[in-house]
Write a structure and sequence with these properties.
883 residues; alpha/beta; 8-stranded mixed beta sheet; 34 helices; 34 strands; 45% helix; binds phosphoenolpyruvate; binds magnesium ion
Length: 883
């Protein structure tokens, strides 16, 4: 079996398409090498080996080891160096590389191959003994931590002590001899702590590092990250072993990270940061604040440190050309890592860059205009659920509030919350429903759960490519990094800003779009949904087949949904109208009335209120379809609950309290969600359906007269299981329609249909369709009734089910394709057998879930209906579903 793929020297055994085998990093290194770009030679051990490593008690097959040795030999030939050699020693980096990018989650070892012998040779080759001993101590520190399991801090303490003893402030003050001494202290630490020596055999080092990278696939933070990003555990990580190049060989060396376009705004400008005389992870770790790559970016930042463009013009122009080439080759914005070793540029990584949704929109639209990609591709490049990010509020520009600090605009949107200083505090606060801003000096992969729980993130160190920035952008959480004018005192748990000192629990606002930090809560405004967003949505609309409607109960919902592009109302839950203002009193009188006469009196009062609501909805929708559902919930939802309410309502109705309480008892149900609700109400009390139908028809007449646009109401009967139920209620509706037509002299066209929310209705769809002009799948109830899991109690154990792997996704959020989905397919097919023109839609929560929308496309539904804020998501997902 081929376990190892080599690359370098203008050739490679793998390609960019081999991501599943080689992981993202390995596949793209291979691609760059085969394009003839300057890539240090190396090899990739395939991701399949990871599972095998864990299965075989942390061992690897002999065949694999031989292939690694052969690859290593090839690297020696290309570089002219020898692994473990006393002259020209070859040093290696050993890095993870999974199929999906997991920034910083797994382990890396650099400078591998150094020992007491090779360190001397390296110093000789480089003409720099100080560099060699510094590299050696870095290696021992990394190896001691990653492979041997010693706490990184223990090494740092030794180093700090030494610097203190020598009176040095910076690492750069250390001399060769002083580093050499640190090396001996590090080695002693390892022996004292572990009772074994730091390995001098380079091959032992290599296999130790490879094993550690495979092992890191299952470390706590990697597992958390996978869980958050739905990355399957059985993918495993590949391991990349590559010849080291050094960015820390003096002032003509550097290391950096760049994006071919601005990852925050999408602007078509090279965007990146670098550090002179620094190694590998220094930029990402955010320990030193990096310099701009381009002169233009330096001018914007106002930094007095020179740009790479000025400092290293030759390497810069080569890099610029490579950026262009890679972007055109991959037809996407790239995220690159590079190192300059004594003036020579080396490419260490390329991949599709993570970006904010705003940037993703701009890049997709620009690339269509540049002729790089098609409109279809542009539409597919936006993750529908990420549109949520665009709906984030921003700080009202007219507001002036004390700015207590500022940093880099690392992830857009504004957020307000209480200050917390640790990930644990953030998680605990979120669990209590409090909104927090996680404030750190810098974040590390250990903070990932706290970052997820926070509304926003603020760090005082680090750049646009630091851990906090990258992760926050990926999560769509507002973030400000490198707020250098602020200071976090972790010991005393305070944040010191301009003119203030804030403690845990104090409120701040961060603006991830401008980098500002403000004291207290600040008014926010909603974003504009035009420009690139508008264009992309237009393309999506021209591609999709299904219509997107909204679930809207109030005029405010309906207006918001229209602004988001809803093409009608798929579900108006009329009961919500009864909870507003004084209406609840009349509603209660209606329910608690002891006779039809009493009910009719209350209904007469409700009629004008419903009529005016519907008139307004019809006006807002201006001729677009509007589906109105008859009263659905169990009556007990409207009843007074507290003693105070009971006394009040009884008095208002002029009923003696004892009688009133008896009436309440009579209405009590053991299982109301399966009780007296839905069409059962209309059958028990047809006068309720009559009133609602009358309100609908009279409103349709009124709206049509006002707007001149024809109104075709769709009247929907909930929770039908039997055709006879639907027949009964439809007859009531038809009767009212005829009466209203006579009274007003205006014939209103209308449809009557039903929700499919019960398995029986789905199975008997061919019969029910004889009486229904449309079906709308109420997948909330259909999920509840198919699983026999109460939708109101599911939350208590669904998490446990997910944690224990009993189910993968919450079926109330993402449709259960196998079970509930099967019923939908059956109902759609049988319904259309009877009535080919039967209109089919979905109006449960699933109507706004991208995966469920794909299912609806496959099942050939006519429309999806979702809450107003999900309408753009549904428009995009419906377009993607057709491609
Ligand atoms: C449903 O059951 O899916 C539905 C849309 O109705 P409701 O959520 O109001 O029960
Ligand atoms: Mg329902």
């Amino acid at each position: 079996k081929k376990w190892v793929y080599t690359f370098g020297n203008g050739a490679a055994e793998g390609r960019a398409g081999d991501v599943a085998i080689l992981g993202g990093k390995g596949a793209n290194l291979a691609e760059m090498a085969s394009l003839g770009l300057p890539v240090p030679p190396g090899l990739t051990i395939i991701a399949d080996a990871c599972a095998l490593y864990h299965k075989n008690g942390r061992d690897l097959p002999e065949e694999l080891k031989l292939q690694v040795m052969a690859g290593l030999h090839g690297m020696e030939i290309v570089t002219g160096k020898t692994f473990g050699g006393s002259q020209s020693p070859l040093l290696l980096s050993v890095r993870s590389g999974a199929r999906a990018s997991m920034p910083g989650m797994m382990d890396t070892v650099l400078n591998l191959g150094l020992n007491d012998r090779t360190v001397e040779a390296l110093g000789h080759d480089a003409g720099d003994a100080r560099f060699a001993w510094d590299s050696y101590r870095r290696f021992i520190q990394m190896y001691g931590d990653v492979v041997m399991g010693l706490d990184h801090e223990m090494f740092e303490e030794i180093l700090e002590d030494e610097k203190g003893r020598l009176g040095h402030e910076y690492d750069t003050d250390m001399s060769a001899v002083e580093w050499q001494h640190v090396v001996s202290l590090y080695k002693k630490l390892i022996e004292d702590e572990l009772g074994e020596a730091f390995p001098q055999d380079c091959h032992v080092q290599l296999w130790g590092a490879i094993g550690a990278v495979f092992a890191s696939w299952t470390n706590h933070r990697a597992v958390t990250y996978r869980h958050l990003h739905n990355i399957p555990g059985d993918w495993g990580t590949a391991v990349n072993v590559q010849a080291m190049v050094f960015g820390n060989l003096g002032s003509s060396s550097a290391t950096g990270v760049a994006f071919t376009r601005n990852p925050s705004t999408g602007e078509a400008e090279l965007y990146g940061e670098f550090l002179v005389n620094a190694q590998g992870e220094d930029v990402v770790a955010g320990i030193r604040t990096p310099q701009s790559i381009t002169e233009a970016a330096r001018l914007v930042s106002g930094s007095d440190k020179p740009s790479m463009e000025k400092l290293m013009p030759e390497a810069f122009s080569e890099f610029l050309a490579i950026c262009k080439r890679l972007e055109t080759h991959y037809r996407d914005m790239q995220d690159l890592e590079f190192t300059i070793e004594r003036g020579k540029l080396w490419m260490l990584q390329t991949r599709s860059g993570k970006r904010t949704t705003r940037a993703a929109m701009k890049i997709a639209v620009d690339m269509v205009e540049e002729g790089l990609i098609s409109q279809e591709e542009a539409v597919c490049r936006i993750e529908p659920s990420s549109l949520d990010q665009l709906l984030h509020p921003t700080i009202d520009p007219g507001i002036s509030r004390p700015i207590i600090g500022s940093g880099l605009p690392a992830s857009p949107g504004a957020a307000t919350g209480e200050i917390v200083f640790t990930a644990e505090e953030a998680v605990a606060a979120e669990a209590e429903g409090r909104r927090v801003i996680l404030v750190r000096i810098e974040t590390s992969p250990e903070d990932i759960h706290g970052m997820h729980a926070a509304e926003g993130i603020l760090t005082t160190r680090g750049g646009m490519t630091s851990h906090a920035a990258v992760v926050a952008r990926g999560m769509g959480i507002p973030c400000v990094t490198g707020a250098g004018s602020m200071r976090v005192d972790m010991r005393n748990k305070v944040l010191i800003g301009v003119g203030c000192m804030l403690k845990r629990g104090d409120i701040i606002t961060i603006d991830g779009s401008s980098g500002r930090v403000l004291k207290g809560e600040v008014p926010m405004t909603q974003p504009e949904l035009s420009g690139d967003f508008g264009k992309l949505m237009e393309w999506a609309d021209s591609l999709r087949r299904m219509t997107v409607r909204t679930n809207a109960d109030t005029p405010a919902d309906a207006r918001a949904a229209r602004a988001f592009g809803a093409e009608g109302i798929g579900l108006c839950r009329t009961e919500h109208m009864f909870f507003e203002g004084d209406r609840i009193h009349v509603m209660r009188e209606m329910i608690l009335a002891e006779s039809e006469k009493g009910r009719r009196a209350a209904l007469d009062e409700l009629l004008p209120m419903q009529r005016s609501d519907f008139t307004e909805l019809f006006q807002i929708m201006h001729g677009l379809p509007v589906t109105i559902r008859l009263l659905d919930p169990p009556l007990h939802e409207f009843l007074p609950k507290t003693d105070g309410e009971i006394v009040e309502v009884a008095a208002a109705m002029g009923m003696p309290q004892t009688v009133f309480r008896q009436r309440l008892d009579a209405l009590h149900e053991f299982n109301p969600m399966l009780g007296h609700r839905g069409c059962r109400l209309a059958i028990s009390y047809p006068e309720i359906a009559e009133m609602q139908a009358r309100a609908i028809f009279e409103a349709a007449v009124a709206a049509a007269r006002i707007t001149g646009a024809p109104v075709v109401p769709e009247i929907m009967v909930p929770l039908v299981g039997l055709r006879s139920e639907l027949d009964y209620v439809t007859a009531v509706i038809d009767g009212v329609a005829a009466a209203v037509a006579q009274e007003t002299g205006m014939e209103i066209e209308y449809l009557t249909g039903t929700m499919i929310e019960l398995p029986r209705a789905a199975l008997r769809a061919h019969v029910i369709a004889e009486a229904a002009e449309f079906f709308s799948f109420g997948t909330n109830d259909l999920t509840q009734t198919t699983f026999g899991i109460s939708r109101d109690d599911a939350a208590r154990f669904i998490n446990t089910y997910q944690r224990k792997g009993i189910i993968e996704r919450d079926p109330f959020i993402s449709l259960d394709f196998d079970g509930v989905g099967e019923l939908i397919r059956i109902a759609a097919e049988r319904g259309r057998q009877t009535r080919p023109e039967l209109k089919l839609g979905i109006c449960g929560e699933h109507g706004g879930d991208p995966a469920s929308i794909h299912f609806c496309e496959d099942a050939d539904l006519d429309y999806v209906s979702c809450s107003p804020f999900r309408v753009p998501i549904a428009r995009l997902a419906a377009a993607q579903a057709t491609l």
